[in-house]
Specification:
Number of helices: 9
Radius of gyration: 48 Å
Helix content: 25-40%
Largest sheet: 4 strands, antiparallel
Structural class: alpha+beta
Strand order of the largest sheet: 1-2-3-4
Length: 321
């Protein structure tokens, strides 16, 4: 094809494009968009479908508020069964022998002064544990065995709290005569409130009924069916009417005919010097002395001839005829 014909075709095509554009503008002057039509006729325009990438180019329409009813508030003061079970598992179980053996068997006869301070009868389990140790066992070989001068029914198990030598609250327990159970519970509560230090308060049975071993371990104890040293006379401890407090620091001191001093326990010799000042010493200015004497107890430190600085005892009034 020659050059002249190509030029003519280009000119013709350009003319066609110009004519078509003019016609389009002419018709569009009298046209109306869909949105203009809807506005003029009061109709609500229908939304057009968003493009596939609408999230990337437009702001999402907020979600309408939830018209569903709000959940009712949880009722108050209704225990959670699972929560209660967990709390029960967290309750510490006593490791004290007497508390374990008595358990809850005497709860209906328990007198509670306040939490941690109570007394109750001695259970059958605890009786079996004490028999042959702090309480005499029946002598089957004796022709006419004499029964003990006190029965288990006249004794009480006492549970207390006390502050140990490290300054920590801890549990303690003892067995005593029923006549002084209330006294001891009240006295030990006051000692606890005043943070009076007691190293240990355990049943003498933990020491196989050995009073010397208990004193050497500075254990505070009460009932033990035994005689007074070097005599055949029953001690007040045998009736549950005497208690020894911090015995290592407050020893039992006797004298021979020659005037020689004997100290029990032997390791307490440094504490027999009562003119010296040292921790845990009981004297007339001590809170322990004040509380026990206020409850009608006498103190072994006031005795003549012997001095029992650890010892407090109470004498019962004779029963009326």
């Amino acid at each position: 094809m020659d050059r002249e014909k190509i030029v003519k075709m280009v000119v013709v095509l350009a003319a066609i494009v110009v004519i078509a554009g003019s016609l389009s503008r002419l018709f569009s002057r009298n046209s109306m968009s869909l949105s203009e039509y809807a506005h003029n006729n009061g109709a609500t325009p229908q939304p057009t479908a968003p493009p596939e990438d609408a999230d990337a180019v437009s702001t999402p329409t907020p979600e309408p508020p939830d018209s569903s009813p709000s959940p009712s508030p949880e009722p108050e003061n209704i225990p959670d069964p699972e929560g209660d079970a967990d709390e029960e598992e967290d309750i510490p179980v006593s490791s004290l022998t007497g508390a374990v053996l008595n358990g809850a068997s005497q709860a209906d006869q328990r007198f509670t002064l306040e939490e941690g301070f109570y007394y109750e009868p001695v259970s059958d389990n605890l009786r079996r544990y004490m028999t042959g140790v702090s309480y005499p066992a029946e002598d089957a070989g004796a022709e006419s065995p004499e029964p003990p001068e006190i029965t288990f029914d006249e004794l009480r198990y006492v549970h207390i709290l006390h502050i140990d030598y490290d300054g920590n609250p801890t549990e303690g327990e003892l067995v005593c005569n029923a006549a002084i159970a209330a006294d001891l519970t009240e006295i030990f509560r006051e000692l606890y409130r005043n943070e009076y230090r007691l190293e240990k308060v355990l049943l003498i049975d933990e020491y196989d009924g050995d009073d010397t071993a208990s004193m050497e371990d500075n254990n505070t104890s009460c009932f033990n069916y035994r005689t007074v040293d070097d005599t055949d006379r029953l001690s007040k401890h045998a009736y549950g009417l005497a208690i020894d407090i911090n015995p290592l620091y407050n020893p039992y001191v006797t004298y021979t005919e020659e005037g020689a001093e004997q100290v029990s326990p032997a390791s307490a010799l440094p504490y027999a010097r009562r003119d010296l000042s040292f921790p845990h010493k009981i004297d007339e200015d001590d809170l322990c002395y004040e509380l026990f004497t206020r409850h009608g107890f006498t103190w072994g430190g006031d005795w003549n001839g012997v001095k029992d600085y650890q010892h407090f005892q109470k004498t019962l009034e004779p029963a009326a005829p």
